[in-house]
Amino acid sequence: MIKNMHKESGFEAIPRNTRKPGLLLRAGLGIGSLLTVAACENEAEQISSANRTEVINYSVNAITRTVDFWDHKYGDIGLDRNTIPNLTLEFDDDTSSALCDIFTPDEEGEIFFCNVDGEMVLNPTAIYRLIEKIGLDPENPTHLSAVTDVIAGHEFTHFLQKLRGDDQKVDVLTLELQADCAAGAQLAETGFAVNASIEELARSRELYEGIMLSLGDPRSDGKRTHGSPEERLGQFTIGYDTGIGSCFSVVLGR
Questions:
Q1: 3-class SS at 149?
Q2: Which of 102, 169, 179, 231 could join 157 via S-S bond, C-beta 3.0 to 4.6 A?
Q3: Sign of CA dihedral 23, 28, 31, 34
Q4: pTM
C-alpha cells in the first residue's frame, strides 16, 4: 500500500553535537516488532495537525528520556556504549523497509521496530487511536505522556535486542515480554517528576499498570505475538520492582 503522508521536514529535537549514541531523529518513524497495536483494526480518520504535532513532541521526549536512561547502562546488558549505532525514528513508514511495511498495511498498526532496516516507526495517528482504544484521553497530557513512555521503553528494547542478537535466538513472544520488563525497569526510574510525592508515585505506577493490562492480548488460540494482559503486567512489574538486570538475565515467569 502506498501512503502519501505529509512529513514534518527538518524536525529536530536534539542538537547534533549533543546527541548520545542510539538516537537519530528525522521526519517520519518505523520498527519491525509490533508493540501490540495491530489491535487497532479499523482505519480511522487522520487526527488534526495540532494533535499530530503534540503526539510527535511527546514521543520524541519519551524516546529522549529512554536514550538518556540507557546511556550508562549498555554495559549492564553486554553492549559497548561506543559501538551503539544511531536509531532512526520515522513518524510514518513511507521510507521504512518495504518488508516491514507488508506487515502493517494501514497506518493504525504503525508502532513498531523494523529488524530489517533498524528503524523505529511511531505513527502519531496510531498512537492517538491506541490511547483512545485503551480508554484514556489522548489530549490529556498525563495520559499522552504515560502511553508514549511505555511505547518508547518497549520499542527501544527491541533495538537493543537486535544489537545483542536476541532476535535471532528466542521466540517473538519472549522478546515482547522482555521489552515489557525493560520498560518497567526504566519507568521505575524515569516515569515521574524528580520531586514527586509518595501519592504521585503511586498514581504514576497505577496508570502504567493499567496501560499494560489494556495492551495485553487476551486470545488463547496460540496465535498471539504479545503477552496476555496478566503476562504483560507481570513482566512490567518485575522490571519495575527489580530493575533491568532481571529483564536481560532471563525472562521471568515463562
A1: helix
A2: 179
A3: positive
A4: 0.81
